[in-house]
Design brief:
The chain is mostly helical. It has one domain: Winged helix-like DNA-binding domain superfamily/Winged helix DNA-binding domain (Arc Repressor Mutant, subunit A, Orthogonal Bundle). Helices cover about 40% and strands about 10% of the residues. The chain is built from five helices and three strands. It has a three-stranded antiparallel sheet with strand order 2-1-3. The radius of gyration is 23 Å and the shape is elongated. The protein starts with 16 loop residues before the first helix and ends with a helix.
Length: about 120
């Protein structure tokens, strides 16, 4: 339905990011990087009633197990910055637990690998 001047109301799914985040700023990159793993806290048996619909949907996503921040943003269809802000808010409230990403493995020493290869060739031909 349009008014006299052709104005149409904005669709309800087009809520501005600053409204969703309530004006909060981005958390530090060290706290919530793209590969930080997030899940719902085990002690949160009952869902709090004071969460926004967006926070509730993120909490529902995280209750299935560990997901990275990037995966949560992809599944929720929210902008990455909005997801990081909402996840930080849920972490502060004790609703989420994070786990830092697994550290990159150290590369094996080339000399040791060559010694193993020579030993295997000597034993098995």
């Amino acid at each position: 339905m349009t008014g006299h001047d052709g104005w149409q109301p904005e669709a309800p799914e087009l809520v501005r990011p600053y409204v969703i985040t309530k004006g909060r700023g981005l958390p530090d990159e060290d706290d919530l990087s793209l590969i930080t793993l997030v899940t719902a806290s085990a002690e949160q048996q009952q869902r709090p009633a004071r969460l926004s619909p967006e926070e509730q949907s993120l909490l529902d996503l995280c209750s299935a197990g560990y997901l990275s921040v990037a995966e949560i943003a992809g599944h929720s269809h929210f902008p990455l910055g909005v997801v990081r802000i909402l996840l930080a808010s849920l972490m502060e409230g004790g609703h989420l637990t994070t786990r830092p990403p697994v550290a990159r493995a150290r590369l094996a020493d080339r000399e040791i690998l060559e010694e193993v290869l020579h030993g295997l060739r000597a034993k098995f031909g």
